[in-house]
Design a protein that fits this description.
By secondary structure, the protein is mainly beta. Helices cover 7% and strands 57% of the residues. It has an 18-stranded antiparallel β-barrel. A two-stranded antiparallel sheet has the order 18-19. The two termini are 34 Å apart. About 7% of the residues have low confidence.
Length: 365
Amino acid sequence: MWTKYCFCFFMTIFLVANASWARDSEWSGYFETQLSKIDSDTEGRFANWNGRLKPSWKVKTKPGTLHLSYDLQFEGREGADHFDTHGNLHLAYMEVPGRLWDVTVGKQVVHWGSSQIWNPTDVFNQDFLIRLGEFRDGQYAVRLDRNLTESLDLTLLTGFKDSDEIPDERVWAMRVGFLSGITDIALVTSYDEDLETLDLGLDFKGDINDDFGWNFEIATKEGLNNTDWIEYVVGIDHTVLTPKKLTMVLQYYYDESGGERPSNYDLTAFLEGRRATLAQRYISFNLEYEISRYRSASLLVIRNMDDESIRIFPRFKRSFGGNVDLLFGAEMGRGSDGEFNARFGTLTVEDPLPDRWFVYLKRYF
């Protein structure tokens, strides 16, 4: 924890010391706001309201580009005297380009992997970002990027992540990417200093022809008590002009460790990035349609193949002149249902997931 406070202190000193170039800097940014209604029970007798407001700024200066973002959250419950607010620094990092290495320091979003939903090779964010208006969490990290050749790049990374076992885990990672005209390949390795575990992963992405593409992501993971498991994702995508753009993506995800943990299966945990209650097998289908230049719609269906439950995510997006994005969406379906067989017994789900409704606005300035 002290490392985070030290970073905030030195970042403040850095900004004050360089206030002279701030007057000649180029400023831009946006703010995001999201409001969601969550039915607290399957009969819809009462509901929770959650909201988020996130202003973000980007400052281009002579040393580099500074990114700042703050996340204010509030929640309340219908029919109850309950209202709570809290906020946190969402992002605060500096990008400094160099002759050999590009350096990124601070609380930043690090996301690796080519799969649309699941990313076994991701060091920090293995949750899938499908909730409308949700923001991927940032981590305190130092990142070094270098292009070794036109088709070969290298990334070195060290930072902190929160997990089910230990908060603020220290992680060291390396990613080597090879780009070609047919297949893109990435090799990822990460070492958890606190758990003393080593993960290895490979990521492949390519095109079959102009209309079809494919990807395959696989990783070997180590856990506590000398446990290890394999995760992988295989997917295929197809794009059709009808004459508007129609994209279809089909993916299969397998987690060997899913279901073995002594906990009820809960898709909510997966949506929030907690991996303690996953099933083993999922399949997803995502359909995206470009209605017009400023309107688009999508439908994502995720099926848990262990308990045969389904969760559906419809979304609609409307843009206004390129400066404002307005989105509506929902989560519907059970997501978990009854009992399913796990590797070490049977898990029981007491209640299915409630429905959730979204409205999301993004305004650039």
